[in-house]
Amino acid sequence: MALSATDLLLGRILSIMENEASLLSGVHDEINELKLELTSMRSFLEDADRTRVVQSKAENDWVVGVREIAHQVEDIIDKYMYDMNRQQQWRWGYTFTSFFLKGIQVPQNLWMKDRFAKKLQDINKEIKSIPERSQRYGVYQLEVKDKNLQGMLGNCDLNWLKNESESSLFLKDDDLVGIKKTQRELLGWLTNGDLERTVISVTGMGGLGKTTLVANTFNKQVVNQHFDFCAWTTVSQQYAIEELLRSMIKEIYMKANEQTPVNLNALSYRDLGEKLEKYLQAKRYLIVLDDVWSLNLWQQISRVLPNGRNGSRIMLTTRMKEVAFFQFGIVNHVLELKPLRDKEAWTLFCMKAFPSNLGQCPPYLDSLARNLAEKCKGLPLAIVALGGLLSSKKFLAEWRNVHDNLNWELSNNPELEAVKCILLLSYYHLPYRLKHCFLYCCIFPEDYLIRRNRLIRLWMAEGFVEPVTGATPEVVAERYLTELISRGLLQVTKRNESGRPQTCKMHDILRELAVSISETEKFVAISDRKEAVVVGDNGIHRLSIEVRDKEMKAGKGISKLRSLFVFAVDEISKSSCNSLPSGFKLLRVLDLQDAPINQLPGEVVNLFNLRYLNLTGTQVKELPKSIGKLCNLQSLFLKETQIEELPPGIVKLKNLRHLIVYRFNIRGTDYDRWVGMRLPSNIFLVKSLQVLTFAEAGDTFIKNLSKMTQLKRLCFANVKEANEKDLCFSIGKISLLRYLMVMSCNKEERLKMDQLVEAPPCLEKLVLAGKLEKLPHWFKSLQNLTCLRLHWSRLREEGFLTHIQALPNLGRITLVNAFEGERLCFLQGFQKLKVLRIQKFPGLKDIVINKGVMPGLQELNIRECPKFVKLPHAWGSDLPDLRKVCLRDVSSEIIEQICGAQSMAQPAIRVILLSRVEDNDDESNFKWVYRTYD
């Protein structure tokens, strides 16, 4: 993390030198000297990060010192830029006497630059007080050896990790919980009679039990009888291919009861490969490669594993999805492990925590035990380790102490060392830029659902996203997120129609470890205490506060804070914490989403460094009129606030990329529940905007919309029929659009878009709200569309679905009062449709879905269709992926059809939710269950 801080600072210095030359005139020599020193520091730290070793106390102290110096420099530069920016803004605020005032300010500016140069000189002297650079950065010999992982993992070493992994080979069936179904699938792939060489990958985050499952399957008698030769090899992060081959050959000689050749250690990779290939050539073999981290291994080892038609199998375990889903050969299978279900997790926890009580939890410990088991979130490694730790504790106070101090226990208790080591392997294997992206996620509270776009925009604001030629920062940041997910460090909780993650979260145990690392590295501080929160006393640049029922108080270090998050986790009285403390100067990120704030400090407009401002869900009623001073602001979020109009100065924000400004009218109908915000008519001057939602459009806005060519997401309302020509011309010019929502001025106004020649080629989501005579002709060009929503279209054309049935990527359709007929007919197509939602169809009686249509449908939702009387024919059998059917405010006939006689006893039933769940009596089957609601 010291490397991260130094690298980010170097980037900022270069940016300042290029973009703020006028402010830095007179101090270039000091800046350049500092740049050279930090470059040398960075080179050393990058070597240390790559080799993952900081073993001695001297080395560790040096790294801590580098981090402290980097923070000092950052503070000095940001404070200087703040002061100089204030001076410029003060001068620019005058007109008639501006020339005279500029003259007065010259001596003060010179004094400020002189003071700044003196501080930089002091920093350079402090760095040079260490021995000469060659000694400072070359004294430590950073050799890449397996033993270096010991420095990374504290008390763990590679031998311990290898032994821990291979100990799974000795577990008995009685020690295992929740693997029956997955093991049946694994055994099927191993012994199904397919003669092609097959690669089977078992993947999932660390601690899910991949090795345990594969080891237990490897030991099955049916497996050993099926293959002529079986071998187990533990790979790990750092391996030597020659050692892996020697291990397999030794196993060959051992099983043949022959003496291992004395010259085996002298053989080259080629000789070892030839020996192994010759032995396996005519055999049906099973090779297990446990804990694979890189595809390089496959490229090296596949050449010596015969590819004959003998029914051989290669089984590997990996945390890396890019490894698991690689196309290894003709036949590949992937088994993604999931956390244990609640019932299974509780059973396993009790087995380990109460072995002397036959796995039964005493009543007096039930509440604490269930909370601790829940903390493990179905992760077998954590459940077993935590249960084992608690098995020796009999008193309530002992259990409560572990419960209340789990973070400390994970970091310091030797009995939980295995959990820490195994989970942190994934973290330390990350490229250095991704390490701070991962740690940053612990800013959010436990179990918090983190939206993809929010996280990406925050990483951008913090400067974590490296510039990549030909790619926007948003694209690069999404790659980072995908990488963290593929390594099991973040869990996806919801995906959109195209498979991109919408929300994700951190596993509780991983978050505890991330919090511990962040506090040690002074990366972020987490405050979730119930007493009054003191902002800025710890000297850390990022602070996350969980506000409960107390006000925030400013600390003496508040002026150095760069990022502040406020999370409201409980119901809070309106009188508490309704304003922020003052004193901020250098903030880059201010995230107050859902916090009980009703006013911003006036000094917010002086935060020239502010990149990200999130007021979503607050009670703020207005923005400062001088909002245009925030010249570096990239993201502004005003969703669900009390703000009705943006000040004219918003158009001065030349770096603004994301502007979200709508709220919901809870008293409105489905049509007018979106309430837009009035924007300045010349908002089109902000040409950097990529996201604009949800504007109240006027004629001027629509005419000039074509100038906002960088837009990728656009939502606006108040469109009139007379706007058709300008509307279609403008949309046709915005070729980068991925998300488009257009809403007419009222539900009776026709939404005319026929003059659009062709839809934007990248369009993925389309929402049209307003009356349509027919679907526009350009619908056929929506080849990339994944989501379509039609609101209040009131189409009368019975065959309107034929215009969209062939769209190849359509995954979700929402139709709200979109059709006035009695029957919806899905006759063909919709091959990728996963979600179908139908609402407010006053005349709809039934739906026809032909066999073979929408074969991947997972959710069917029908609401407010009072005449709807029956579900599609054979919906249970012809739609094999269907898992959820929701019926709300439908006819009494369909309620009785599903619920039978029960409906007569419950005449107030309005909602029926049918769920297809696994049958606990037979895990290979599913059954439908229903719940009813008034």
UniProtKB/TrEMBL annotation:
Disease resistance protein winged helix domain segment(s): 443-514
GO biological process: plant-type hypersensitive response
UniProt domain NB-ARC: residue ranges: 181-358
Annotated Disease resistance R13L4/SHOC-2-like LRR domain residues: 560-870
This protein's UniProt keywords: Nucleotide-binding, Plant defense, Repeat
Domain annotation Disease resistance N-terminal: ranges: 8-90
Any one GO molecular function term: ADP binding
InterPro entries: Apaf_helical (IPR042197), Disease_R_plants (IPR044974), LRR_dom_sf (IPR032675), LRR_R13L4/SHOC2-like (IPR055414), NB-ARC (IPR002182), P-loop_NTPase (IPR027417), RX-like_CC (IPR038005), Rx_N (IPR041118)
Gene3D superfamilies documented for this protein: 1.20.5.4130, Helical domain of apoptotic protease-activating factors (1.10.8.430), P-loop containing nucleotide triphosphate hydrolases (3.40.50.300), Ribonuclease Inhibitor (3.80.10.10), Winged helix-like DNA-binding domain superfamily/Winged helix DNA-binding domain (1.10.10.10)
Gene Ontology cellular-component terms listed: extrinsic component of cytoplasmic side of plasma membrane
Protein name: Disease resistance protein RPM1, putative isoform 1
Source organism: Theobroma cacao
